[in-house]
Each structure stands twice: as structure tokens, then as C-alpha cells.
Specification:
Blueprint lengths: L2 H41 L1 H9 L11 H32 L5 H8 L1 H30 L11 H18 L2 H10 L5 H6 L1 H15 L4 H41 L1
Helix pairs in contact: 1-3, 3-5, 5-6, 7-10, 9-10
Length: 254
């Protein structure tokens, strides 16, 4: 191995170590913010709890001390996840920033607040579906046959099972735009695989909602609309990307 090759190998190793060190530091920063938000959520667990139970006409029951502890950790964890999303998104952006053009940096940075807002909007929509559609439907099946009693553990696990998938799915437009700007995804690919995406979204709707056809359609339709919005947003980003590439090639030709 020549001296130049050895130097190149050494530089590559140093760059790799530097990237890994930077990644570790950014993960540490994200973890610190997660812990801070978790502590804040832990302090305000009672307020969060009463916010969620105000929309139901039932008294939740705790049948073991661990359920009380579970509520504290789950509510604090939810606050920590919501609060950490923009921090994590920024850390990811900062890590890949050196590989982006100035235009891509500016465009992708604007995705971070949108990512956070869409996550909140998804939670709100999921909570609406839970309180206005899912719970009323399930309670209507009782028809006076049973003495209904929900435990804290079972109720909130079911609540999170319904709402969190919506929060994640509402990120589709931003994810599609971001991947398109990086050249990983194209609107043509999304359009060609539309039927598979619809199938997956319908399956998710079936899993989230009770076995009632009307409810499943009510849930699936917004998800499909969300996918179509993602395609249109991807087209906008892809068109801008192609125009910039065309301008660059024309300038190079001149």
C-alpha cells in the first residue's frame, strides 16, 4: 500500500469516527430533551389524565398499584414523545445537512414544524375518532346487558392503540416531501403503488376500529385522502427539483 493510499484510508477512518461521534452526541441531546419532557409530563399527569377522562361518562377503576404507576409513566411518556419529535427531527436534519445543497437545507428545515403540527393533528383526529365513533359504538353493544367497568390500564392502552397510528400516518405528506427532495421517492412510484398503499391503509383502519363497516370506511377515507395529498406534495417537490436540475444543466452547457 502506497503512502497516499494509507493517508486516504486514515482520512476515511477519521471521517467515520467523526460521523459516529457526532451521531452519538446528537442522540444524547435528543435523550436529554426526552427526559426533560418526561419529567414535565410526570409533574402534570393529573391534568393530562382529567383531560382524557372528561369526555367519558364512566369512572375508571384501578385494580392494582402498578396500574397507577403505569398511568404516570404512559402519560409522561406521551408528553415526552410529542415534545421530542421536533428535537429529533432537527438533530436528523443537522446530521445530514452537510450532504444537502443550500436550497435543500432551507426546504427540509421548514419540514420540522410541519412534522410536529401534523403529529398533533393526527392525535386530535385519532382522539375524535375514539371518543365520537369507537367508544359510542362499543358502548351501544351493551344495551343494558352488563355493568360496565373499565380499568385504567385497559382504557388508556386502547386509547393509545387508536390515536397513535393516526398521529404517525398524518406524517405521510411531510415524509413523502422529504424523501422526494432527497431523490429517494418519486410521485410516479407512489402513483403506481397506489393500490397497495390503499390496501395497507384499509387494513390499518380495520385494525384500529371495531368490526363495523361504516366506521371502517369513515376511518379509511381520510387516510386515503392523506395518501393522495402526499402524492400531490411529492409532485410539487419533484417538479421543483427537476426544474433546478434543468437550469443547472443549461448553465453548464452555456
Amino acid at each position: 500500500m502506497t503512502e497516499n493510499q494509507q493517508q486516504n484510508e486514515s482520512e476515511k477512518e477519521m471521517n467515520l469516527v467523526g460521523h459516529l461521534s457526532e451521531l452519538r452526541n446528537r442522540l444524547i441531546v435528543t435523550a436529554v430533551f426526552f427526559i426533560v419532557f418526561f419529567i414535565v409530563g410526570f409533574i402534570y399527569v393529573k391534568d393530562i389524565y382529567w383531560f382524557f377522562v372528561n369526555d367519558i361518562d364512566l369512572v375508571l377503576t384501578a385494580i392494582s398499584p402498578t396500574e397507577i404507576l403505569w398511568i404516570y409513566f404512559s402519560m409522561a411518556g406521551l408528553v415526552a414523545i410529542i415534545g421530542t419529535i421536533p428535537v429529533l427531527a432537527y438533530q436528523i436534519w443537522a446530521f445530514i445537512k452537510p450532504g444537502l445543497t443550500p436550497q435543500e437545507r432551507t426546504a427540509s428545515l421548514s419540514y420540522i414544524p410541519a412534522l410536529f403540527l401534523l403529529f398533533i393533528l393526527g392525535l386530535v383526529f385519532g382522539y375524535f375518532v375514539f371518543t365520537k365513533l369507537v367508544m359510542p359504538f362499543l358502548l351501544s353493544l351493551n344495551d343494558g346487558m352488563f355493568n360496565i367497568m373499565f380499568t385504567v390500564d385497559k382504557y388508556f392502552k386502547f386509547l393509545l392503540k387508536v390515536t397513535l397510528p393516526f398521529a404517525l400516518l398524518f406524517e405521510l405528506p411531510i415524509i413523502a416531501m422529504f424523501l422526494t427532495s432527497l431523490g429517494i421517492l418519486t410521485p410516479d412510484f407512489m402513483s403506481k403503488n397506489r393500490k397497495y398503499a390503499y390496501f395497507i391503509l384499509i387494513v390499518i383502519g380495520v385494525i384500529i376500529t371495531p368490526p363495523d363497516f361504516v366506521l371502517q370506511i369513515v376511518v379509511a377515507v381520510p387516510l386515503i385522502i392523506l395518501y393522495e395529498i402526499s402524492i400531490q406534495m411529492s409532485k410539487i417537490i419533484y417538479r421543483k427539483k427537476m426544474n433546478k436540475h434543468k437550469e443547472f444543466m443549461e448553465n453548464e452547457g452555456n
